Amino acid sequence: MSKWERLKRWLMTMRRIIRGGCINFVRNSWLSVAAMAVMTITLTIVLFSVIANATFTNTIQQITSKIDISVYLKDSVNPDETTQLLTQLKQLPNVQGVTYISKDQALTNYKKQNATNLDLLLAISETDNPLPATVQIKPKDPDKINDIKVFLDKPNITALQSDPTSYSGDRKAAVDKITHATAFMRKAGLISVLVFAVISMLIIFNTIQMAIFNRRDELTIMRLLGASTSYIRGPFIVETLLYGIFSAVISIVLLNSLFVLSSSTLQASSLGLLDINYANQYFGEHFWLFLTLQLVIGILIGTASSIFATQRYLKFKTTK
Amino acid sequence: MILLDRVTKTYGRDAAPALERVSLHVEPKEFVIIVGASGAGKSTLLKLLTREEKPTGGKIIVGGIDYDKLKDKEIPLLRRKIGVVFQDFKLLPNKSVFENVAFALEMVGMTNHEINHTVPRVLDIVGLKGKEKRMPAELSGGERQRVAIARAIVRQPKILIADEPTGNLDPKHAWDVVRVLEKINRFGTTVLLTTHNQDIVNRLKRRVITIKDGQIVSDRASAEYKS
């Protein structure tokens, strides 16, 4: 057989396999619908958990971004010492940014914040500016805020401070609680996504197993007639490939319409824990990535499970 | 064409053998009828020939192929050389009559042109002209049987094994089937037929092998055969 003839024959076989898979898909419509329903639901749940996790992380980010340390400087600290302190702080690995607020600026801010409280304004205007100059430190990772605290507690640095930093006492306890809780939630979010992903893989795998179990007779008949393994298996793989493609697309469309139709209801029902607008935006920004991922997952799991599930019905007897 | 040398098959360790030291030689183009009560070992014999089962002992050579030396991936090639009509038809439920028969040709890479030419001819031989588009579920037992025969003969195999092909048929259709088998045999195919039907055995006047309790108890020309 020439190379050209072999290619032609290969193409003909491929066409038959693909056509066979498509015909089976249509003729076993009930099985197809049932399998796709399960796959769509699980893929949607996974995608939903990914988006929920991202949104949740975003909310946590917003909370933790508010955490900072204020260092209150003695009035006697001279500008050189201040500059030196700022430079040292900026060199710390966990420091994202440092803001210096002078005594005057502090007073202005204070007046602005308490513009409606006449008693306080009156009290503060009767004395000299009692507010200290402040250095606000924003940590890169709130979990490791203690690194900064250790630096600030060095004797030569505490000597510059008029009061303990804002990260001490009750406030320290509160900040620590928040950072611990958010760290835990981040982990929990990631783990739940992984758990959902694994469970749905198992469910999809099982669904395909059942679908093929239902039609094991066909496999054994083709085997008895002398069809090759790939020729028997091919149409089944094509069929599950179609399940995967349809389920991925339906799942994306479903989630998209969920966002479009009921974002306000969701916003209300999520008790403010989830920022649905962010979720919507996140989904929109990653739409093509998600579609591709869903397709890849659907196709990969579908194909792998159908190969695995057909295996046992294609084996030859080896026992004597 | 078919050679069995002291073939034994035991299912399970402690069970009595389904076949015990069976030796048999079938010449090319021969027409052999195998008779015996249910459970005598007929089906086991046929399953060994299609390599659905592996013998516990003994040697099987079919069409020059020694089954001991047969690798797993060569089994499909062996099965393509043997046409089998199964007792329970084994039609593909999701394929039409035409597609069921065509499948046997498609899987060996025959072109659509050849398939469209061959399948209707064979369906005509078994009397299923005009029912090409029916699904197996829409057919009667006899019609399904004939689809199974069409599928078994469409590749013009050197050997045809027919396991009770007349079991589900009324006498008229049973004879139609037998005539088809005779016709194929005349074209040069070795035919192995198992049956319960005494009438067929008596009228065909062919070699008859009787199996009882897993052993061949008689092997003689039909003229000598008496129930």
SSE topology sketch:
The complex is a heterodimer of chains A (320) and B (227).
Chain A: H1 3-27, H2 29-64, E1 69-73, H3 79-91, E2 95-101, H4 103-113, H5 118-126, E3 133-139, H6 145-152, H7 155-158, H8 169-214, H9 216-225, H10 229-269, H11 276-285, H12 287-314
Antiparallel strand pairs in A: 1-3, 2-3
Chain B: E1 2-9, E2 19-26, E3 31-35, H1 42-49, E4 57-62, E5 65-66, H2 75-81, E6 82-85, H3 97-106, H4 112-125, H5 141-153, E7 159-163, H6 171-186, E8 190-194, H7 198-204, E9 207-212, E10 215-220
In short:
The complex is a heterodimer of chains A (320) and B (227). Chain A is mainly alpha-helical and 320 residues long.
What does this structure look like?
The complex is a heterodimer of chains A (320) and B (227). Chain A is mainly alpha-helical and 320 residues long. Chain A has helices at residues 3-27, 29-64, 79-91, 103-113, 118-126, 145-152, 155-158, 169-214, 216-225, 229-269, 276-285, 287-314, and strands spanning 69-73, 95-101, 133-139. Chain A is elongated and about 100 Å long. Chain A has a three-stranded antiparallel β-sheet with strand order 1-3-2. The longest helix of chain A is centred in the middle third of the chain and has 46 residues, at 169-214. Chain B is of the alpha/beta class and 227 residues long. Chain B has a single domain (2-224), classed as Rossmann fold. In chain B, the strands form two sheets. Chain B has a six-stranded mixed β-sheet with strand order 6-7-8-3-9-10, sandwiched between helices. In chain B, helix 3 (97-106) crosses helix 4 and helix 3 (97-106) packs parallel to helix 5 (141-153). The longest helix of chain B has 16 residues, at 171-186. Chain B is globular and about 50 Å long. The model of chain B has no long low-confidence stretch (mean pLDDT 89). The interface between A and B is medium-sized, with 26 and 30 residues.
